């Protein structure tokens, strides 16, 4: 909670001013019944018109002051709450950007989206209410009780007996409501998760005719959200009838004892009217307070979820003494007895892996699904850290590099081609934001995508849909490769990112890559790619089964021989051999 409230610090003066204005409104509301008693007892009952006009004029003047204070308070409350929401959303997003892959594994994407949107909205709305009405309700109750004592202490005792019971009841409701609305937000996470999966995979759902199944799955999660929300709201709605019953009983008591006191001459009519007025104001404030308790229950649940992300410890950073900077890498890579498993899992995906890759070598990494190829790639730019052993670049442990500088010299193309909404040019410039148009075109040509781009209606200014939805698989792969090539990396990592390319296009691409002064690692299932590599690493279950060039592995590795033979029979190698 403290981490959430700390974002109010820059706006403490506007917030304080808003509270002062709210207190002016409150003071006017509290003084009016007292002045009303004056009008009745000293003016109307005594038929003193001048007194009625005097106190009536005072009431009108302070009502105008209250109106102006309320309008100005709303302005400042909106300014503080919206600025607060903007700041917390920005810092939350920046914190997520700093998360390592291990941190991100702890939070589903849908949950992070909910926290950035719905939860932050709950926080800023509650801050607005806090500056506008939230403090006003409890203060009005306390102030009304005090003023009731000022008017007549005997009748005020009835309120003293009633109000503490009401406060204890509201505290209980707040605690229970917090838990219930916490469950509501978790259910909202699940609904968002299903929606995100469905919208992302809509083409696949249609292709496999799974609309009914996915609709049923969505309806199930949505129904559970509805049930949890209904339970929480029903519980919160029980507050109002109970509060009204208690306060109406107290008002009846005031009327009963007030009538008796008037008959005995111990209380004036105006005093009874004033105290009844205070009781009615307390009742209306309690109805507002019940709404506030509901909102604050949601606030507490959302604050806990936002604080969880804000206080999450980023488990990967530049270690002490480990921020050495190098002007340029040469691209030598060495693994020394490296073992790795994903955080929170017991399965070792890389075990005792050792090899050396020299500068400007082209390395093909082969292996079955789950053999550790992608995991190996992710250790090089420190997307994950090895559990045991050392990953060295230019004979220096990667932990000693400044992560930003290290990653700036690595071109990484993941298995899934991720493109962003924007133009073709903007997507390529992701690799190097200050690149010239000439560099963009050169990278596109080397990635074998330039001719395709020139056929687009707006060429490099052609707008892409989300994730490049208006491109084919091969086009997305080549555009992703162009994005990596434009930064002229010292190390290029192609994680099975040529799978959608035909042999001729892939060969041209790899020939273009060889003109770059970089070390290239390619995850592939194609022997045709391995044939042209300087070094082939053959992985199985996270272990290095064999290494060498194509000819040596073909001579000595039974597994490589089987892969070669199967692809030869499929006719996938002949052309590549001819081109070698």
Task: Give an overview in words.
By secondary structure, this protein is α/β, with parallel strands linked by helices. It has three domains: 2-184 and 240-310, ABC transporter transmembrane region fold (Up-down Bundle), CATH 1.20.1560.10; 327-409 and 491-580, 3-Layer(aba) Sandwich (Rossmann fold); 415-488, 3-Layer(aba) Sandwich (Rossmann fold), CATH 3.40.50. It has helices spanning 2-5, 12-44, 49-98, 101-105, 109-134, 136-151, 153-200, 202-207, 211-237, 239-264, 269-310, 373-379, 403-408, 424-428, 437-446, 450-454, 473-485, 503-513, 527-530, 550-556, 558-569, 574-579; strands spanning 333-340, 350-357, 362-367, 388-393, 396-397, 410-413, 422-423, 463-464, 491-495, 519-523, 535-540, 543-548. The strands form three sheets. A six-stranded mixed beta sheet has the order 6-9-10-3-11-12, with helices on both faces. Mean pLDDT is 80; it is low at 575-580.
Write the layout of secondary structure elements.
Layout (H helix, E strand, L loop, with lengths): L1 H4 L6 H33 L4 H50 L2 H5 L3 H26 L1 H16 L1 H48 L1 H6 L3 H27 L1 H26 L4 H42 L22 E8 L9 E8 L4 E6 L5 H7 L8 E6 L2 E2 L5 H6 L1 E4 L8 E2 H5 L8 H10 L3 H5 L8 E2 L8 H13 L5 E5 L7 H11 L5 E5 L3 H4 L4 E6 L2 E6 L1 H7 L1 H12 L4 H6 L1
Parallel strand pairs: 3-10, 3-11, 6-9, 9-10
Antiparallel strand pairs: 1-2, 1-4, 4-5, 7-8, 11-12
Helix pairs in contact: 2-3, 2-6, 2-11, 3-5, 5-7, 5-11, 6-7, 6-11, 7-9, 7-10, 7-11, 10-11, 15-17, 20-21
């Amino acid at each position: 909670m403290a981490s959430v409230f700390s974002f109010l610090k820059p706006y403490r003066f506007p917030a304080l001013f808003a509270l002062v204005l709210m207190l002016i409104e409150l003071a006017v509301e509290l003084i009016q019944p007292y002045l009303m008693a004056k009008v009745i007892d000293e003016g109307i009952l005594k038929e003193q018109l001048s007194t009625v006009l005097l106190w009536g004029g005072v009431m009108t003047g302070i009502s105008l002051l209250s109106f102006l204070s309320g309008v100005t308070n709303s302005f400042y409350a909106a300014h503080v709450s919206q600025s607060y929401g903007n700041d917390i959303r920005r810092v939350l997003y920046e914190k997520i950007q700093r998360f390592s892959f291990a941190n991100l594994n702890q939070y589903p994407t849908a949950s992070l989206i909910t926290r950035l949107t719905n939860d932050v909205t709950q926080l800023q709305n509650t801050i607005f209410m806090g500056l506008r009405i939230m403090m006003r309700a409890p203060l009005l109750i306390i102030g009304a009780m005090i003023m009731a004592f000022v008017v007549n202490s005997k009748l005020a005792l009835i309120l003293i007996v009633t109000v503490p019971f009401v406060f204890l009841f509201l505290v209980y409701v707040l605690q229970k409501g917090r838990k219930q609305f916490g469950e509501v937000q978790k259910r909202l996470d699940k609904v968002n998760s299903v929606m995100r999966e469905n919208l992302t995979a809509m083409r696949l759902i249609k292709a496999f005719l799974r609309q009914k199944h996915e609709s049923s799955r969505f309806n199930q999660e949505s129904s559970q959200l509805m049930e949890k929300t209904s339970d929480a709201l029903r519980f919160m709605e029980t507050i109002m009838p109970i509060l009204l019953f208690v306060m109406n009983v107290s008002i009846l008591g005031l009327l009963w004892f007030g009538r008796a006191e008037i008959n005995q001459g111990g209380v004036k009519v105006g005093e009874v009217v004033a105290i009844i007025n205070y009781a009615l104001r307390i009742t209306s404030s309690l109805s507002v307070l019940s709404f506030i308790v509901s909102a604050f229950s949601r606030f507490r649940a959302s604050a806990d979820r936002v604080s969880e992300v804000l206080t999450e410890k980023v488990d990967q950073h530049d270690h002490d003494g480990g921020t050495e900077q190098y002007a340029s890498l040469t691209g030598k890579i060495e693994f020394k007895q490296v073992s790795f498993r994903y955080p929170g899992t017991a399965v070792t995906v890389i075990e005792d892996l050792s090899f050396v890759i020299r500068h400007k070598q082209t390395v093909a990494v082969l292996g079955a699904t789950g053999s550790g190829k992608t995991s190996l790639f992710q250790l090089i730019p420190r997307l994950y850290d090895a559990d045991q052993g050392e990953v060295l670049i230019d004979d220096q442990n990667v932990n000693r590099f400044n992560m930003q500088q290290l990653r700036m010299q690595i071109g990484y193309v993941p298995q899934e081609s991720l493109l962003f909404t924007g133009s073709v040019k903007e997507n390529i410039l992701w690799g190097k934001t200050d690149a010239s148009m000439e560099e963009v075109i050169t990278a596109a040509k080397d990635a074998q995508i330039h001719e395709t781009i020139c056929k687009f209606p707006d060429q490099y200014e052609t707008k892409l849909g989300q994730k490049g939805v208006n491109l084919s698989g091969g086009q997305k792969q080549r555009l992703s490769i162009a994005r990596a090539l434009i930064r002229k990396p010292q190390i290029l990592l192609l994680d099975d990112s040529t799978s959608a390319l035909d042999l001729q296009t892939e060969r041209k691409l790899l020939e273009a890559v060889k003109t770059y002064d970089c070390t290239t690692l390619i995850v592939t299932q194609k022997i045709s790619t391995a044939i042209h590599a300087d070094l082939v690493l053959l992985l199985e279950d996270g272990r290095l089964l064999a290494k060498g060039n194509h000819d040596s592995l073909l001579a000595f590795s039974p597994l490589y021989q089987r892969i070669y033979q199967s692809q030869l029979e499929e006719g996938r190698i002949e052309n590549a051999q001819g081109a070698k």
